[in-house]
Each structure stands twice: as C-alpha cells, then as structure tokens.
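A note from the maintainers: we've had questions about how concatenated examples are separated. There is no special marker in the raw files; a new sequence line simply starts the next protein. For clarity in this README we add a label.
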Amino acid sequence: MTAQASVSPKVGIVIPALNEADSIGKVIAALRNQCHYPVVVVDDCSEDDTVVIASQAGAQVLPLAVRLGAWGATQTGIRYLLQQGCDIVATLDADGQHEPDSLSTLLEPVIKGYTDVAIGTCPERVSRLRLVAWMMMKTTSGLRMEDITSGFRVYNHQASMVLADARATLLDYQDVGVLLRLQAAGLKLLDVPVQMQERGEGSSRIFHSWLVVGRYMLQTLILGLSKRKLGTQTENKK
C-alpha cells in the first residue's frame, strides 16, 4: 500500500442553526465525544445565545449577515469546508434529533467509496401526515430515498462541489431540490438506517405555521414535477 493510499480523508461537520441555544451545546459536546472532526456552526442570524454557546462548546461559528434559511446556511458551511480542504462533509441538525454516535455509520460507505452521498434514514420517527407528504414528493419527483427530508447526511468531495455550485444557491430547502441536483449530476445516493430522537427543545424553526407548510409543499411538488427523472441510482443499505 502506498503512503498516499493510507492517508485518511479530511472530514468536516456542518450544523446550520437558528435560535438553538437550548440544544446546540449538547449537540456539539456529543459530537466531541464521538470524533475530533472540525465542527462548523453556521448561525442564521439567531436572536438568542446560539453563537456564544456554540463557540464555548468548541465549534467554529460562521455568523451570517442576513438570514439565508436552513439550506443557505448549510451551503455556506459546505463551501467553507471545501475551502479548508475537506474531502468529506457531514451535515446534521442543531436541535438534537440526529445522534452523533450514528455519524460513523454514515461516514463508512462514503469513505470506502461505496456511495457519493449517505442519507440517515428513520421513517418511523415521523407522523402519518408527514409520511403522506413524503409519498407525494416521491411520486412527483421520482426520488426513491426512504427519508427525503433528512438533514443527517454525508457528502463526498464531488457531491460537495455540486452543492457548492451557484445553481444550488437557488434552492430554499435541503431535501427534494438538493437530492434532484445530486441525481442530475449522476451521483450515487445511499439510504443508511439510523436512530433519531424527537426534537430536543422547542418547535421547528422552519415550519412554524401551516401557511409555511403549505407553501413548502406547493413549491416542492412543482419543483419535483419540473425536474422529474426516473431511474435514480439509489440503493438501500441492507
């Protein structure tokens, strides 16, 4: 084996955050117990102590000048880690739903080159109403992932470059649009079963009203129909 082949890929972690002072410290501490990868918290103009707590917990914080939303914050983190020379980027939420001890399970198939993108899936965590919404999204988009709204993902360098591109900046959310961009680039997506928890504190910062949910569903379904492509390169991890 050559010295070059034995070099481990450089991994970085992105956590988009908006008013997550109650949970962000615990999430970062749990990550620190599991790994020593750099953790970048992209603060989406929080009005609480998210920035202070994340910094004290040992994360590097990138404060945004204007609110970009969850995907805009995530893309900012991906771009930053690419600039820092990272080969692999992992993303997870700041609210405590994603368990850091599952990160190694997500990283493994990407590091070994089995897939370009690993998506943490846990369909049993959601309500029947959300499962119906997922079914509608899958039907219109042609996507076959089990948990298409999961933000617990690992991207290899090629996938990260696709998502750092200006065309991905036009997206509002990190689910269907992002997956369709990856699919259009011919990348391989892999569902990886993981355990997830209920949101640690408070309520969703994105879907805070039924009006927002309705707008999201309409926009997502239209996007799926317009970009539909059958025959994805998605596999389920056995």
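[label: protein 2]
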Amino acid sequence: MANDPFQRRFAADASLLPHMADLANDRILIALLAEADYRAASFLDQRLLTDRVGREWMAWNALPDLGPAAPRPDFIFHIGHVGSTLLSRLHAEIGEVLPLREPMLLRTLAQVAERIDRPESLWSPELYRTRLAQLLGWLGRGFAPGQRVMVKASSVITAIADDLTGANGRALFLYVPLPRYIETIVAGEASMAETLAQAPGRIARLAALLPDFPFALWQLPPVTRVAMSWLCEMATAQRILPRTDPRYLWVDFEQFLANPAASLSAQCEHFELTIDPARIDDVLAGPIMRQYSKAPEHGYSPDLRRELQVQAAAEHTPAIAEAIAWVEALAARYTSLGDLPIRGA
C-alpha cells in the first residue's frame, strides 16, 4: 500500500465510498461523496448514483486492508419502520458523528453469509471473515480526526449483526411492540408493499430459528404476514443481540418518543459519546422531529404518526387481532420466544 497513491488516499479519505459489489466479477463500485452527501442521504443505495456522483469500478483486491487498528463504526440495527433514520439524523446533529445509512455492501455481506455453507457460495468462510473485517475498516473512516461513524443498517442486516459489532463494538437495536408495528405498516401503502415483498425471506429465516415451524407463507393473510415479519426480526435480534450483552442497547421507539431527551442521553452514554443536554434539547426543538426522516422535504411528527396508527387500528381491527393471536400462539409453543415484548415492555 505504501507505494500505491490510490491505496494511500483510500485508506484516509472517507469521500471514497465502497458503494456496491459485483460478486460475479469480484469488484466494487467506488463512489465519490462529500461529507454533506453522507449527512443528506437517507439511503446509500442505488438512489445515490445521480449524474453528479463520480464513480468507478475497481477490483476488490485493489483496495487496501486497513488492519485491526483501524477505527470501526458503531451500528443502529432495527426491525424496520421504527425510527432508525430519525435517530441516525439526531445523532449526526448532536455530536461528532458521521452517519452512513444503509450502505449496500452490508446487504451483500448478509447475502454471502446466508449462503456461506451452500454449494453455490462464491466465497469460502475464511474469505467472508477476511472481507468482513476489511469492510468494517472502510466504513469506519471519518472526515476528521476523532469523528465517529454510525452505520444505520437495513433491517435484514440483523442476521449478521454480531459479526459486524465484534467483541468491542457498540450497537443500538430499535423495535416497537407488535401492535404498534402492525399499525405502522398497514397505515402506509409503501410500507405494506415493502413488508409483503420481504415476507418470503423472513419466513424462511423464522423457520430456520424455530424447529418444525408449522406454517407456509401462503397460509398467512397479509396482516399476519406483517406480524410474522415482526416476529422474524425480533427473534433474530433475541438470538444475535441479546439484551444481557452490554454491547447492545435495546430501545423501544414508542418509549423514545415519550421522552426523547432522556433516551438520547442514554444512547450517547452507551456509545461513549459526549453528552450535551443543551445541544440535545436544541436538536429536538429543531426541524428534524417535524420531518419525515427518509424524505425531509415532507412533514411528519410523532402526533401524526400516532393518528395514523389509531386510524389503521380502527380499519383493521379483526385482522390485527388475528395476527397478534397468531404470534402469541407461537410464543406459547416455542419457549425461546417467551421473552419477546409482544405487547410492550
């Protein structure tokens, strides 16, 4: 690396984002972003690639391994549609935190990990571990000395969360009780469509967690598929991110909304970030809490969120009750699910 100017620059320059992978050809697309681009982007996915963003494909092996001493990012994991983008924006304003929201390479790692023991796997387990460590070093680069990086992963990444966090990392896990999750999803056409599209993969993961799982997806009505999605992600987190592990802080987003200042202070303490109560109050009083975090040009608020939940609960009462009963029956059948906060707490 010492004799390669690009590798030296890449090791120190967070503006060079390893954006996405082409596994078949073992290469990575490098995108050129300013710090403001990171802060503005709700998703570091294909929507990032506008005409103004420079980019170039490079062989994976042409990129450096920054080594175990390189800073590693912190993480926000979640079950989806539970305020993770909002918390990412809040932390980016409160302290010296660089936000990375849903980098695509993490999805690639999750897909590789899912197939690592299958005949079709392109990587060996050893190569997966090597490149996982390499990627964490890349994602840990900041724009200034001492700047912390906080990665907001997509919900399906929880399956490899322990690999990402490592022995000394810190992570947040965001969730809501089952009734609020169902109401939130069915209240929005886009969130419902997304959740139903992800249902096949989630029921496969859930069946792998629960021996002799007695259901097929075709047997579940749409709202029960939403409840199954909640159960899959919560059961995954229960196994991968246990509450008893001090590396992981579980946060009920509903409780966060009830007292955001206290919750943010606890989160900063967990991540060993500087706690400035005045700064927290200023940020909470600003526009972030009144915007839709994934599209800040649109207004949104905790009060509007609750209004939509109440409306959804009234419009889908029988289906929601059936879905909750389905999850509770599974929790009674499988003792490993007994501690899940189905109704809250």
